[in-house]
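We give the chain.
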Amino acid sequence: MNNYSISIRPFGIHAILLEWPGRVDVAILEDILQFTQYLKKCCLKNEEWEIVPAYNSVTLIYREEPINFKELKTKLLNWYKEDIKVVKRQKVLWRLPVCYDEDFGIDLNEISQKSGKSIKEIIELHTSQVYTVFGIGFLPGFTYLGGVPEELQFNRREEPRSKVLSGAVGLAGKQTGVYPQESPGGWNIIGNCSVPMFDPKAEEPCFVSVGDQVQFYKITRAEFDLRKIESEVGIYKLEKIVLDA
């Protein structure tokens, strides 16, 4: 690990928050994920511990009893300083289909005007990138994907919509993401993904994990409708590529 300067503070009586430098950085995220893997394998093996990595932080949650903050903080700092040899984390790339039809890409024309690029160019830019999952929130299964090209970096809408469709693919600043369910939202909507991002009935409700990579590819409206049906009846197969182990 890189041994960044990290801070540790209580996060209520049942949780503790570890924070890395406050910037979105793939190297920092990799350091966080290596340390969380080490904690799971070697230090906090009790299944009652919940470990939640995101962006530049890790939250440790233990609901069985209050955490002894001073004692655990000392242990965490010592563990982090150790020369840890961790088995390489499996890296996964998910390829997700998106329909950029005008019925779905309701902000494409506005983005085209702001960027000075054609809708075709916008779609090509969005699908040419490989994004990194930096966090999962504000809705269950909502993935915050970093790596948006500079030409597609636009602020959130000044007036959020009261309803954004499930599957809507949006842009906001340096991030892109997929709305896992219908909800209010202020991101710029450019398409719709036919793959359900969150299924509460599944063994793993959210198939994507922090640290995974995502690449979108364009599909037609007819292909979108077909994939939606396949997903609803449970026969759609996710396109998962294992990059290394």
